[in-house]
Amino acid sequence: MKKLSLRGRRILLLLHLMFAAIMLGVQAVFIILTLTASVTKDSTVLHACYSIMHLLADSSVRASTIGTTVTGILLSVLTSWKLFRYYWIIAKEVLTLLCIGIGMIGLYQWTLKGISPAAMPNAWDVPGFAVNHTWLWIGIILQTLSLITMYILSIWKPGGQRKGYRER
User: Fold this and answer.
1) Structure confidence by residue, pLDDT tens digits, 21-69
2) Does 166 fall in a domain?
3) Any transmembrane segments, and where (predicted)?
4) Does residue 164 belong to any structural domain of this protein?
């Protein structure tokens, strides 16, 4: 397969970094909104937090996850990195699968389940709301840690090349 030119590689890397930055930025917004939802007594604020998070889960989270994944795969396949040559790339691939599951499925479902109860005056008394909110927190924490770990792996590239790896 033909490799990318230097210009093509830089453009693809720029797109990859932009999508990854959007993912991390959206995670920061999720943390702020979930913290706000956790401490507010106002049902209007609680409902607004869940509505905004659901909108983000349905748009920015999906678009940035797909964009980052596609550009990451293209960078691996079209450069000398390859998909399975280095341990750090394999670790990023596993974390990417986790982020796809949490971001595109988990965050979407947890925010969707929380929208209706959040509009009620006593949302925290609605059966299952607190449990759903806890799962949302767990998802946000795992997603954030995964994204930070992927940034670290991209910068430090630990582990080196797999032993016995042969390019086909």
Assistant:
1) 999 999 999 999 999 999 999 999 999 999 999 999 999 999 999 999 9
2) no
3) 12-39, 59-79, 86-110, 135-156
4) no
Give phi and psi for 162, each to the nearest 5: -65, 140
- What's the domain count of the chain? 1
Report the distance separating Cα 116 and Cα 44, nearest Å. Answer: 11
Rounded CA-CA distance 79/89 in Å is: 13
Query: Does residue 165 lie in a domain region?
Result: no
Distances in whole angstroms, Cα of residue 52 to Cα of each of 23, 27, 38, 45, 70:
15, 13, 15, 10, 26
- Domain range for residue 119? 6-156
Compute the Cα dihedral for 113, 117, 33, 54 and give only its sign: positive
pLDDT per residue as tens digits for the range 61-119? 999 999 999 999 999 999 989 999 999 999 999 999 999 999 999 999 999 999 999 99
Q: Which of 114, 138, 109, 140 is nearest to 128 (CA)?
A: 114
Beta carbons of 43 and 120 less than 8 angstroms apart: yes
